[in-house]
Records
---
Amino acid sequence: MTTYAVTAASGHLGHLVVEELLARGVAAGDVVALARTPQKAADLAERGVRVLRGDYSEPDTLREALTGVDRVLLVSGDTPGQRVAQHANVVEAARAAGVQRLAYTSLLRADTSGNPLAPDHRATEEALAASGLLTTVLRNGWYLENYTEALGRYLAAGEVVGSAHDGRVSAAARADYAAAAAAALLADDGEDHVHELGGTSFTLAELASTVSEVTGTPVAYRDLSTEEHVAHLRSTGLDEGTAGFVAALDASLAAGDLQTDRDDLQRLVGRPLTTLADAVRAARA
Ligand SMILES: NC(=O)c1ccc[n+]([C@@H]2O[C@H](COP(=O)([O-])OP(=O)(O)OC[C@H]3O[C@@H](n4cnc5c(N)ncnc54)[C@H](OP(=O)(O)O)[C@@H]3O)[C@@H](O)[C@H]2O)c1
């Protein structure tokens, strides 16, 4: 019997991974869901999953929750500035608890990417490599939800505004990344793996035309320079730091950091991926 643990199970991705493990036939009693806020994963406890407190900043909770676990998915934390140390706590707790395989949700092309989020992921990948554990690096691209959650804004403004030029983004649905993570946890060939994960790529102009086609409301892409983009974001109320960060994400997209032609995601998921048009349709409904 193999026991699986998923961290941040109170969040969208972690929760979906637990659901996917159950859907793929893992017994609920063989799954440990770690959550900083266990009440948010109460529905999983009701289904027989062991929901335990696991806070990346409290190593004792991690060691205790990972005792007896064979394979762990570490979902990256959401606190820049703290998360390298937090992830190191999980890696150390997994090692101390005798975990065999540690999987981690990293970022597409984390080893070379100029994306402002990449350094944290790179440092965590290095900690994984030094751990002596079997490792699976899941280098996730952008979520389609990053765009579909802004659908109302696009439709109200009649435009998508960015500074990604003709850069392509291989975004995919969060649920597809979750399915890939579950499949990667279930597979065990005794090897280390690095998966570059993303869906069919599109430019932000193609995003705008897909939104127009699916909704019937004309939406154009307005491409700006980085400086103009920062000024535009400031005019919508963002502070200087946040505006600069958002524009830097588009610069990373323009540089090709968020594109992959690899079919790792499709192969792991084993069924057709959610397309951009599907995601826009679902968000509209
Ligand atoms: N590729 C992309 O486009 C993209 C987009 C957004 C995020 N991400 C990354 O992917 C991760 C998962 O995404 P998501 O959609 O599931 O995000 P989410 O729904 O916001 O969930 C974030 C999770 O991180 C947990 N967390 C934060 N600090 C923690 C700590 N100290 N100890 C334990 N858990 C902690 C939160 O716990 P609580 O429930 O207690 O708050 C929550 O469960 C994010 O954390 C971020 O690193 C990627």
Note: The chain has a mean pLDDT of 97.
---
Amino acid sequence: MISEPTDESEIRHREAAIEEIAARLGVRAERGRRFAELTSLRVGGSIDWVISPHTEAQAAGVAHGLDEAGIGWRPLGSGSNVLADDGEHHYVVLSLKDLKGEVQFGGELVRVSAGYSLPRLCVDVARQGLSGIEGLGGIPGTVGGALWMNAGAYEHEIGKVTETVRVAREGQVVEIPGSAVQWNYRHTSFAEGELLLGATLRLQPDDPGKILTRMEEAKSRRMATQPHGGRSAGCFFKNPPEGTVGTGKIIDEMGMKGARRGTAVVSPVHANFIVTEGENARAEDALALAEEIRGRVKREQGIELEYEVELWRANEPQKQDPDAESKEQ
Ligand SMILES: Cc1cc2nc3c(=O)[nH]c(=O)nc-3n(C[C@H](O)[C@H](O)[C@H](O)COP(=O)(O)OP(=O)(O)OC[C@H]3O[C@@H](n4cnc5c(N)ncnc54)[C@H](O)[C@@H]3O)c2cc1C
């Protein structure tokens, strides 16, 4: 666990270390960014530093440099599954959005980097006549974010087609088999602090026209049942493990569609979506609304809802050792 530096000289030492790592590896390092600019909910406080590598080797080098300097960091893709609180986040955000590279095709295998857009990849592979992820076409975010939580929709999950994953270990790019990872419902066995750099997927040949049609059908179903254009992070809570009733229906039946806390509202279209409104939207409103929903579902249904969205607290020390306790969300 790394705690934030408090003493002036410690802070200067940390700043210099971050600048040195970025300069040595030739990556962009910026100050003054806010989670409100980097997440789809458009809320969240200031970030000390955002570092944006372009290549897998650079990303592995940055993570290693920060680990060696004892500086806390967190990987971020498109920020479409993160609710960061309004506080000052004193760690480095390792933004993977510039780590796009080129998609490489070799028969049924597709090699892609972590920052590549998942919706774009779905179109690319469909055009190549490769099937297996067309259900994921409407999920915003990067390939790395999808791998991290085993994103899925309409009978497709990224983990089911992942042949290998490239991860950062000791500054190197290391390839591990997909079969070594546990791919569960919106959860994987990747350890906290594991940086995912890219993946190779194994897909099935099919007619491009048919794949694109299936993808459009999935998108139409999504458009009909979910808010679009709004500022959300997708489903806020996971579905209960053994229930036949989804969380959205449970919240809807409690009459909570349209419920509001300040700048956060339960979507009138899908009750498991919280959307934020206005230039000054606050994470604390979204969190308060989410906790109100959890409290009512617990009291009235006896069900303990689990967050699907990741909550990032400003005052939480960052974990860095991938061998540390496994990610439990
Ligand atoms: C409108 C809407 C609809 C959605 N629908 C769905 C859906 O149908 N199914 C579904 O599964 N999800 C859905 N989501 C949630 C979200 O789009 C997915 O979870 C997506 O895969 C997140 O990708 P991201 O790049 O935005 O990840 P981020 O939100 O940036 O990060 C999410 C988590 O992944 C980690 N992470 C990101 N990149 C890496 C990396 N390279 N290495 C290590 N860790 C990393 C982050 O640290 C964080 O813990 C939806 C979201 C929205 C806004």
Note: The radius of gyration is 20 Å.
---
Amino acid sequence: MKVFAILNRKGGTGKTTTAVNLAAALAIKGKKTLLIDADPQANASLSVGVLATKGMHSLGKLLLQEIKIRETIYPTYHENLKVIPSIENLAKLDPILINTPNSETLIKRALEDVEKEYEYVIIDCPPYVGIINLSVLFASQNVIIPLRNDFLSLEGLAQVTNVIDRVSSKINADLKIGGVLITMYDDRDKIIDVGRFSSLLFPTAIRYDRILSEAPKYGKPIFGYAENSPGAEDYRKFADEFLARFP
Ligand SMILES: Nc1ncnc2c1ncn2[C@@H]1O[C@H](COP(=O)(O)OP(=O)(O)OP(=O)(O)O)[C@@H](O)[C@H]1O
Ligand SMILES: [Mg+2]
């Protein structure tokens, strides 16, 4: 089982869009995939048709150790893609987790129970760093950083790599930056210079495609909604590159 955090310190860089469409593309290619929605905004859950409501078994309840991981896993439109809905009440959860010893190990330990059932785990992260993201990074081997193709993104990149460096030196030596993905790309523009991360850039950049922002309204990844759109084409190519890098 390979675990990936989709992370950036900046908001609105395409984290959720990437988590959802990467997870769906992997599922379509026959990989047993688990999408975990770790953002209380619950956009990823919604984007695969799972409305995270109060009564649901969510990542929040898992972190509170009220339930086992299997109870939090919901089916989606595709048989190979399952989802753990997000946290419904972060304000309540955060202070509890801060006072729970080793709370950063909870996601990793929970995933051990389903290790044999999923090949890829894709985790959509919120943009801020808190106890939830620490727990996600503790459970992950690789971070994929979606980056908008503009100059100000470079500062976000520097911030997120600082976080990853800190986590890998303190709590998870296995954690690496697995790749940087340019999103919302206009093909009239040059790709920004990501300096020492250029070897980690995925060759495909995700073009700006309005349809990518429409699909969630129908609870579908881009593939179940507009198979032949530029967004679908780009995420399919990216998923091939991802699988070549992480077979
Ligand atoms: N390639 C794209 N083309 C057009 N719109 C996009 C593209 N990628 C994402 N979007 C839209 O941009 C907005 C932000 O994207 P998304 O929600 O994936 O970012 P995020 O990094 O998860 O944001 P947040 O930090 O709030 O969690 C959304 O409305 C999304 O539909
Ligand atoms: Mg998001």
Note: The CA atoms of residues 109 and 139 lie 8 Å apart.
